[in-house]
Design brief:
By secondary structure, the protein is of the alpha/beta class. About 25% of the residues lie in helices and about 30% in strands. It has a five-stranded parallel beta sheet with strand order 3-2-1-7-19. The structure holds flavin-adenine dinucleotide.
């Protein structure tokens, strides 16, 4: 490489990791990390410790500002990349500047999907992706009299868990017939339906939102498709995200539910790579099919993988996908990549839950609740590709750790 070095667009979890791993690997050319927010920070605590007041904005930062100076990572904050000139190998920025690159990394993440109904922009309607969103939600939560959450996904349920028991009605509205329907088994969904309900959360399943209605210029209720209404002066919309792929698409790169990248994280232009929430990458855990994964693990491991390639040690991305979600007092952990129709085998446990998922007789993933040892063992089993039968998974006498140790 030459003087322009590596330019990383998006200073989130993935962009930060590429920069840090490049320096760890001894990369000496310039590294520029540009993003439209401030210092790179962790998003998971936004719906957990940060909203609960257990950590502050400084505690969210992945590294203090001095780290970037010490590691010669040039930060350009509060600025967006607006266009890529692939022929000239330049990025155009929102402040009018252009930045030359030898290699460009797209780590632009994802943005929240908007609720396509009247009233979705009313005061009192929130979403949660950024620190600014979390600050607004935190401020609104204290004064709210009734809370409605549209979407029973991870973020909606984490917020429900934080709000439950505060003496205010908390209603979760979900179009499917159970929570986290795309991500977890019916068994795990059932566990959390019960746990949240016991904590005082009300669920409206199979419910479509028709409009958010106002009183005195603020949201006052959620009108459902069946005509009924749920009173709420605070509404959190958590109905998933869409990848930030417009920059890549406008530059002629292959996109479609994410920026298409190969197993080495190269896009259709070898001088440009993509990773993290914005990228769609073939996975051995999806029978080689391309998948877009929204998790810290994916952002971090892809960051390391890309830095290895850019420093002359190319390895195809193959890390075991894993994820966690803290809901009320419970920790959900997921390893592997499952599909809704994968078979479920519940391993008998004392407390918590361990659900092993099988596709064509092979372990595809494991969901555990408050069972960290089962989660860790399952991650190793998946990573090593060890054979585990549904019968063995269902037998509590079969020691999973011993299986891993013996491999
Ligand atoms: C509230 C919340 C809770 C979560 N909880 C968990 C959890 O418990 N476990 C878990 O594994 N994952 C969790 N996640 C998901 C996890 O945070 C993401 O998967 C991870 O942050 C992805 O990293 P990323 O770098 O790909 O994207 P991001 O972290 O979104 O970073 C992308 C950055 O690029 C910026 N950007 C976009 N376009 C441009 C542009 N054109 N120019 C400049 N900058 C640009 C964005 O503003 C952003 O700062 C959570 C996410 C949220 C929002």
């Amino acid at each position: 490489m030459s003087a322009a070095g590596v330019v990383i667009v998006g200073a989130g979890q993935a962009g930060f990791q590429v920069a840090a791993s490049l320096r760890e690997a001894g990369f000496t050319d310039p590294v520029t990390l540009l993003g439209d927010e401030g210092l790179p920070y962790q998003r998971p605590p936004l719906s957990k410790a940060y909203l609960a007041g257990k950590t502050d904005a400084v505690g969210l930062c992945l590294r203090p500002a001095a780290y970037f100076d010490e590691h010669r990572i040039a930060r350009r904050s509060g600025v967006s990349a607006t266009a890529i000139d692939r022929a000239a190998r330049q990025v155009r920025l929102s402040d009018g500047a252009t930045l030359a690159y030898d290699h460009l990394v797209l780590a632009t993440g994802a943005r929240n999907r908007r609720l396509p109904v009247p009233g979705a922009d009313l005061p009192g309607v929130h979403q949660l992706r950024s620190l600014a969103d979390a600050d607004a939600l935190k401020a609104a939560r204290g004064a709210a009299r009734a809370i409605a959450i549209v979407g029973a996904g991870f973020i909606g349920l984490e917020f429900a868990g934080l709000c439950a028991g505060s003496g205010r009605p908390v209603t979760v509205i979900e179009a499917a017939d159970r929570p986290m329907a795309r991500a977890v088994s019916a068994e795990t969904a059932g566990f959390f339906t019960q746990a949240h309900t016991a904590a005082g959360v009300t669920f409206a399943f199979g419910a479509g939102v028709q409009a958010l209605e106002a009183e005195a210029g603020r949201v006052a209720r959620v009108r459902l498709a069946d005509g009924s209404a749920i009173d709420a002066d605070l509404v959190l919309v958590g109905i998933g995200v869409v990848p930030n792929q417009d920059l890549a698409g406008a530059a002629g790169l292959a996109v479609g539910d994410g920026i298409h990248a190969d197993p080495f994280l190269a896009t259709s232009d070898p001088a440009i790579s993509a990773l993290g929430d914005c990228a769609r990458v073939p996975s051995r855990f999806a029978d080689g099919q391309p998948v877009r994964i929204e998790s810290v693990q994916n952002a971090v491991d892809q960051g390391r993988c890309l830095a290895a390639r850019l420093t002359g040690r190319p390895v195809a991305y193959a890390a075991v996908p894993w994820f966690w979600s803290d809901q009320g007092p419970h920790k959900l952990q997921i390893a592997g990549l499952t599909r809704p129709d994968d078979a479920s085998v519940v391993r008998p446990t004392e407390g918590g839950l361990s659900v092993f998922r099988f596709r064509d007789g092979h372990l595809s993933g494991v969901e555990t609740v408050d069972r960290p040892a089962d989660h860790m063992a399952a991650r190793r089993i998946l990573g090593l590709g060890l054979p585990l039968t549904p019968e063995a998974a269902a037998d509590p006498a079969r020691d999973l750790k011993a299986l891993v140790k013996g491999a």
